[in-house]
Amino acid sequence: MSEIDEKSRDLIKTRILNKMQDIKSFPQFVLETMKKLNDPESNASDVAQSLSRDEGLVLRILKLANSAAYGMTRNISNISEAIALLGYKSVSNIILAATVYSAMDKGLSGYALDRGELWRHSLMVAYTSRHLAQITEAVSTEDAYVGGLLHDIGKVILNDYVRFGYGIIVKMVEEKHIPFTEAECQVLGFDHAMIGEILVEKWEMPESYRIAVAYHHKPNELPEDKLQYQPLLDVVTLANTICLMLGIGIGADGLQTYMFPEPIERLGIKSFDSLLSEMIDFAGSVANDMGDMTGL
Fold first, then answer.
1. Which of 94, 101, 227, 98 is nearest to 85 (CA)?
2. What are the residues whose beta carbons fall under 8 Å from the beta carbon of 87, sequence distance 6 or more?
3. Are 208 and 143 in contact (CB under 8 A)?
4. What pTM did the predictor assign?
5. Structure confidence by residue, pLDDT tens digits, 18-68
6. Torsion of the alpha carbons at 68, 74, 79 and 80, rounded to the nearest 10
7. Residue whose C-alpha is closest to residue 154's, from 187, 114, 115, 203
8. Interior CA angle at 222 toward 123 and 20, to 5°?
9. Is the dihedral of CA 192, 125, 32, 291 positive or negative?
């Protein structure tokens, strides 16, 4: 089969949209906890009360709090104290990572990714985004982390349909020398960034994350009324590119990956080669930290 006819393409679109409707929002206690974490009038006890409904998350936060408090004269066994020590932003990131982990920790044959590779790539992009935000001071480090973590979430939904049209998509990439995402959209009517945007919106997350997910393969096409999100988008785009260049979760869509120079310029990075060399060392340094986030 050299191409997918219009009838089949329409059927694929319908099935994708139906599958999107079946995707559940975050568990209610997660939404409730996240709201409390974003409420300036809430305290650690309020957050702990909501969070206590998930024993696994409580144990994870206590473990990380004791790791952060290494050398103190006593262990931290109270979840409210652990939340206060780690800070609301860190706790929010732990909850988000735990929530999306189960969706990402699976094999995605449509993207030629073995089990765990999408999670490893997404987590590394999150860490890299946070590091870039720190050294450029372009955007909040925590916003950068979340944008990086979510950027490829649409692959979870689109995987089965990419697998169906994989041969056609790869042939288009090789023969037309176009990015995988462009071929993905031409064949299926959607690419994973578009699907990810719908998911993030469905989960009622901030618009900044929706923009980072939707445009991370086209950072120069941001609408004028959304330019306030350009720094976050540039950080996530560059972090994703760096991770692909380092071979971290490269998969099928690493084919014909384009390096956009504009995000580098907008972020004020003088030498990309120096940055890439630094990121090689950085990737090794966070390996243990990433291990703590695996198996959530």
1. 94
2. none
3. yes
4. 0.82
5. 776 666 666 777 778 888 887 888 888 988 888 888 888 888 888 888 876
6. -90
7. 203
8. 55
9. positive
